[in-house]
Records
---
Amino acid sequence: MELLSVIYPGQVLFGLTVVLFGSAFTLSFLMRSKAEVVRPLRGVLFVILFLLIGTVAIEFSGAATPSYTFGQFSSLSEALSTHRWLLFQLPILLTITSLMVLTVYGEHIAHKHAWHYRASVIFSIAVSFASVVMILLESMV
Amino acid sequence: MPRHFKDRIHESLATAALLAGGVALNVAWIDNLLITRSDIIASWITINPDIGPISGLYINTLGAFFVTYLFAAAVWCAKDVSHWRSRVFWFFFTSVVIFILMTLPFVYGFAVI
């Protein structure tokens, strides 16, 4: 029971998101050589999207002070609060975009003509992974 | 016939998703810039005072994404969009880079006094 009072649900969801983005990042590189990875990748991205929405819902429902500092802050931590919330939009939007592209193309994404779409999915997952790691590092400041 | 339909790639939907992603990211950084520069816009966009302008910003961004997606999907529906492929990809790529740059606190907070 004491353990449950220490664990914060938002942090648990966000931690899971970071771990799953790591696996999605690895899977995304296999799309060209092994088209079968598209299905599990889509599954992982779906779970990530729900975790991201869950994290936002938990953080916003428990928010006591506005996240926007309007340039008036006393510490670096406060300055980065706005940046963290701005950056949080990136994985949400890019995951939705990747999911839509993967749903449309499926295993055909390994085809030669689809390199634009394959590149955009890999790029989206890489940028999303980098942004969640950045958010993690900023929240430690 | 059903197999033929299943094998068909609806490229217009994928292109519309990339376009929507790019437009939404541009809306997000422009919104953020306007919120920082104008108190009127900041108060107008604040849906929940506990969260601040971020609440309206998220809704605006998601709204821009889905409106653009539905509009582009309707316009490009059942059309050959292969000539848009490269242009939309580079627009999406550039939008992500611009978003990352324009949401850095020292960039959007910059002012010549």
Note: Residues 13-53+74-138 of chain A form one domain.
---
Amino acid sequence: MSSFNEILSSALEALGLQKTRTALAILGIVIGIGAVIGLVSIGESAKLAVENQVSSLGSNLLTVSPSSQSSGGVRSANAVTTLTLEDAEAIKTDSSINTVSRVSPELSRRTQILNGKNNTNTQVVGAVPDYLAIHNLTIESGNFISQKDIDNNNKVAVLGPQVVSDLFGENNNVIGQNIRINRISFKIIGITTAKGGSGFQNQDDMVFIPLSTAQKSVFGSKSLSSIALEAKDKSQIVEAQDQVGYLLLKRHKLNDPTQADFSIISQQDITNIASQVTGTLTTLLTGIAAISLLVGGIGIMNIMLVTVAERTREIGLRKALGARRKVITAQFLTEATVLTLIGGIVGMFLGVILSYIISRLMNYPFTISSKSIILAISVSTLIGIIFGWFPAQKAAKLSPIEALRYE
Amino acid sequence: MIRLTNISKIYQTGDIETVALNKVNLEIINGDFVAIMGPSGSGKSTMMHILGLLDNPTSGSYQLDGREVGNLSEDELAQIRNRKIGFVFQSFNLLARTSALKNVMLPMMYAGIPKSERAIKASELLKLVELGDRMDHTPSQLSGGQQQRVAIARSLAIDPVIILADEPTGNLATAQSQEIMAIFQDLNQQGKTIVMITHEPEVAKFAKRTIILRDGQIMDDNMKGNTKHV
């Protein structure tokens, strides 16, 4: 029995004799492994990015949103006005609530806003002073909305940096200027600090006005679109969710929690949902990539079958000279595995480069896990063994007479 | 020592049975040099395959070197081929793109002989067939006669009990044929048992004993002593 080293070097020699074919044969594996590794690490980066983004929206954040009330399986359509300022006040003051540190009632809608001829469509948020702290926002210049602005229904606005550049371009000296929201003139009193990030809930692309002004003058609505809450501690989030839920059920005179006309979502819930979405997408894409890996494996099997057919005489000779089945099997299995392993390693580098480029383009954090390296190497080895097995068996079972006669 | 007793080989192709060897009895003593002749279809090749343990007989007993080898498993046969039989084929059957030295080392690899020992033995054997200066040449860089000499060196790699040569000069010009036969004769004089299949009487003349096959049976078995071709 010849040693593994010798089998390996003869496999490398045999593959080296057919360089173009070898390269083409491994291309399928390169693309397959590259796609899997690339997608897995992009998926991980995306998940990380989502988590970062969600936590940047505020720590220990709970959001109460109105939802349509369902009774007996029937949802009423006009029930999105169930949250009121009184609800928010109650959460802040009720003695049953001891886990909530800040409350921010909000009323927001997408609205067209104007500066002379420039206009943009953005989220206008009726806010209270606590909005800033709850949502991890800071002020770049000027001031945020004060209690006085709320008490006096002042027509003042705080702009996100995105809105500033949309309406004023490069001009940064915008404090004191006026913009029009719903044909009402507002004076700009501050600009929030850019938070970066993109996608959902981009806080750079918002305009903040006093909640009282929003309710009375701009939107003409007494209800709230949401109440943001900050739990005192991370460990109290679930308790806060329960306490607030109980209070609101009582205030809305509902007995059955399943009939609630509101929903309370915690930061964790959002993170989970977002991770679930990216996770599902990643799984789906990886599944598709895995199919290309399968196709690559079939390509390897095909090439190995051609190789076995071409080298029938050689196999016959080796058997005549005393090579046992095991040795022939090992020889061709090694050739197939070396093929796929080279493909796996090249594919791994390709995948890492791919995920690096994409994470740069998408502004994701770039991660490379040892998991994907182990995955690439073990999966490609496995493919070599699985798809090399049949051709290797075919070679080992050749009768030496038939093989020697083969022209 | 080879002893065939009532060896038959029957090929079945659909409903048609072809009797390739019909109850052949044959004894070849150590140190003999046997030429097996016969027209095509006489069973020469089948005889060669059975003697070389490349195929199992349908019935009968085959004793090689005192051991019954008539019905062994494929891997057992491979091992015995490796240890006891040296093959020389008509079309040389060397590994292309592999040096003469490595070709000679091949059977020793399957015998599990350490690599360093293999190289020493192989180079000695190549010197024996006067190819000491061409050890690194690949078959395509050698003439037909030289390739066949590499093949002979390879057949000697594990000191076989018997050298089986299947039309060893079939692909060679006359001068080269003479060269090859001279080597066989030398080897035989050193005590090697050689069984050679040929259809050329000039080649068969080098052997000590000529067996003629016809329709799967031995028609003539002629011990003529060492009659050197002049």
Note: Residues 305 and 311 of chain A are 10 Å apart (CA to CA).
---
Amino acid sequence: MVSRIPVSVIALVVAVGVFVSSVGYADGRAGAGTHSVPGIRLFWLGQVLILVPVAGRLLSRRHLSNGHTVTLIAVVTVAEYLIKVNYTPLGFGFNDEFLHWRNTTNMLATGKLFEQNYGLPVGTYYPGLEEVTSALVSATGLSVFEAGLIVAGIAHLLFICFLYLAFCVAIRSHRIAGIAVLLYTATPSLTSFNSMFVYETLALAFLGMCIVAGLRSAIERSQAERRRWFIIAVLCIFATVITHHVTSYMLTAFLILVAVASRLTGSRNTAIRFGILATISATSVILWIATLARETISYFSPTVLGIVNGLNSLSKSGSTDAPNVVATPLSNEALQYVGLLVITVLIVVGCWQAWRRHRRHPWIIGMMIGCLGFFGFIAIRLATPDGQELAGRAATYTYIPVSVLAALALTRLVNSAAVRRLGAAVTVLVLASVVTLIIDGLANGWPPYWERLPGPHQVSSFESSVGPEEIAAADWTLTYLGPGNRIAADAGIYPVLLGYGDQNALQDISQLYDTPTWSPPVAAFAVENQVQYVLTDIRLTQLLPLNGTYFPGDITPVTRALPTANINKFNHINGVARVYDDGNINIYDLVSLGYVPQTP
Amino acid sequence: MYRRHLDILLAGATALAGGAAFAAHLPGTVQVVLGVALFFAPGYLWSEAILSHRLPPTERLLTTAGLSLILPILGGFLFYAVHIPLLRPDWVGLLVVLTLLGVVAVAVQRLREVPADPRLDPNAQRRSQPAAKGGMPAFNAFIWAVAGAVAIGSVAFSVKNAEAQKYPGYTQFWLTPLQNDPQKASLGVINHQGVAEQYQLKLLTKGKVAATWNFTLSDGQSWGHTVAYTVAYSEVANLYLMPNTNTPYRQADNGEALPTATATPTATNSK
């Protein structure tokens, strides 16, 4: 039975959804930001217009060809990417994007591969994204922003399409593969961190391509074809290792997982192929770190220690020391828990299905083992200081096996005789559940609820703290102070200084702003941290930060606005020059004139 | 036979044209089109060379795009290893060389290849099948075009809307020693108030007015002057937004004097 609604009509409805969401953004920009109720409603209406027709068509029992399935997946991926572009259509707006913009700009200017990046020192050693963007900028004459959007968009679409191809090759059902990719869309960071102009976005495309190539190298009939796909897989491994650290580790883990599962299920050829690929991947990762990217170890040490300590305290006392940063709305929390519950149930049913029907299938058994990562993901989310963010980032990888198992469960459910008897009502319920799951991913992903719509300036609050004034100030620092100055600043302008300003903006500097007077301990702290410039923003004294903290590195949520005297004190220190003033933002030169600490 | 190899010729010609467009500094649009072709040509050719041409169209498209992203990474790293800088001409050169090598690789590959068995070629099978019935190609094409127009329209709408977003006006003002000559300082103003503004700028040394400038700046326009700079005595620069010449609108100093007047902050959160 073929659907009467052409895919082109679904694409049109999706395009209208993108437009409606953009109108929601426009309403936020008109002044109220996220407080714009019509804007929020339009944004979510747009999302419903995007998700419902596609999910309905993919979940439907009516026949859908492989071509139409991949088209629908591409349509929904492009739609969500356009919504991300429409959030900041004039330039990179997401904080992490500034860092790669800076890397690319420096690479184009100097012609060097490993240029210093103050905001993301480890990113210096993973220049894949910057290389591709530089090549495109050079060939076309486009700006870094335009080329970056093209590279990130293509990479994001490639990742999703390769994931679909991998699921198709492994499960041998394009219908289940389509549903699996649809469920994967519920990953919290998929439409944000995984489609931004950041190195992970590009590396994920190579991960997807490597999985497809690895599978094809194992299952192709002719020896020549297997060898050709193997070459592609190896090229993908090298590109991943050069592009992004975590993705290269996850790729290695994934290759090992499939090799082990293949061995367990008796697929010797697949086990050997994936074993060799895993060895190449692991060796490349080790060599890269040992020879070029030693800093990766120190970059990850605090995160790993944080996770271990958090999990330790969770296992000992049943509770954690993870600080509670900002309370999320009840509706988001409820959605989050419903989502976790639905996924857990689907995983359990999916595992049961996998064991009953596919226990000789290496890929599906591999995914079953991989699903254990989901429970680690929940533990990280609950137990570690940056749990929410870490878990969100880890979900990119843990949701791959989860979506396969959940798709098996969901397909079984939709096809079951009981559901067929109950008819359309249950189908609608399943559709509603899947769309709710995806909306949970969007609502609890990025940007957070308090900057769901673009709008007016907010203090120390990621994207909503970035406007023309902050960019102009950062550009000014680069032009008039030169690059690499150690600057203390609030969390709002901090990433802009790192990116546009190419400054060495500092973390954990709130002590400079804690007192109303320039006391000897504060002066000593400034000397100890070799602070060259201090940036103040009068708006910190008027508004509380929606993010919970004013300064980068702080973890304790603030409950009252910064006292005016705390930032005005810099006007009264003999020898400290006020070199810049735009009414809100002031910059003080602490070192070049040789400041004299004042007695309190 | 000729048509079978047309793709190689096209890709090679595109690469050369892309390289020529870069060298000749052709107009933006031409360079963008040829540059995009140059960027993807190596990926197409090397996917042909490595994977043969018997790949279904979707997989061909995906592997072409994937390899187009991989090749600059590996090529760039190779350049780094042999100490070749990676400036713009080098990137264009790399893409041209990768394309030309790809042309040779595909040509060799196709010469060595056993003629394809149509029974094993999914593309040949697809071509030999009758066109699917029941479709409404013109209607579908029209709907796709409308969908594309709506999607692109949403981006254009967002761009216009973001450009028109109202921000509180502000004026950048600075007095900062020059990096290469600390005896001199850059004194500057940029108007971002959203409208033309009239300013008065007074430079005070040792508390006395040493110089006064009156100027009008349109939105986005800047004013700059180089002044003598010292830390031996106080130097204060007061910027006034006319007609108010009593209270400094912006203030900068060399840190040797304590400013007595307080600058008026821009109104905030009144967007």
Note: Chain B touches chain A through 92 residues (CB under 8 Å).
